[in-house]
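Both lines are quoted verbatim for reference:

——
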Amino acid sequence: MRIATWNVNSIRARVNRTVDWMIREDVDVLAMQEIKCKPEQFPLEQFEEAGYEVAVHGLNQWNGVAIASRLPMTDVVTQFTDMPGFLKGEEGPGLPLEARALGATVHGVRLWSLYVPNGRALDDPHYVYKLDWLARLKADAAGWLAANPGVPFALLGDFNVAPFDSDMGDPTVVPGLSTHVSPPERDALAAFGEIGLTDVVRPIVPDGFTYWDYKQLRFPRNEGMRIDFILGSPAFADLVTDASIHRNERKGEAPSDHVPVLVDLDLATEDDDDRPMIF
């Protein structure tokens, strides 16, 4: 089974690129982030024509997550336990929940499409929100894993954290002074290792960025960041046979500023031998 994650940066603007890539790469499941639309605005027709069903969680023109799958999805949820909300200028419980998380089970594999808050600046309330969001996601994942240790489980998406200095090639992002590379953010991401989740792509693809800003020729200069990840449980990691970062999807007309990250699992599906060929 082939599973991928991609911050598409507006699915309505990039639906053709997205579906074409999925068909070309024979993707079974794609977790999408930053779809920037409500469910009724999502371009379902193109996905359905290609053989995918789609679960969508979007509230407005910001954020938004989705999962497209060739296989049936079950247990679809749009938030994790104690997921925090955010409203500028407001604090405390009961704040509006943003469309940043979507969970589903596909062929016995539990998957989450996640768009972690950006953080904006080290002194911004959004930074506190980001750290809280990651901490509560970790707590939810830990509880789920303890209850279901044998079920393959993965968190996929745009984590908005570059965990190592080698993951940061943008000269405007300064460790200790900028978001994405501050010690608390890096510690928050590393903490997922404490509950048994690991970056299943890095052992196979140790180098490479997944995001390049549109400004200042960041892509031609390869001044990017590695901020999109697939964090898998031991049961998930044991199934991984290959992984790739699809850098070429940052090229061409109107690309997203992120590129797909993909893993292959040694998990046969009943459709493997009789899928229709699509040209």
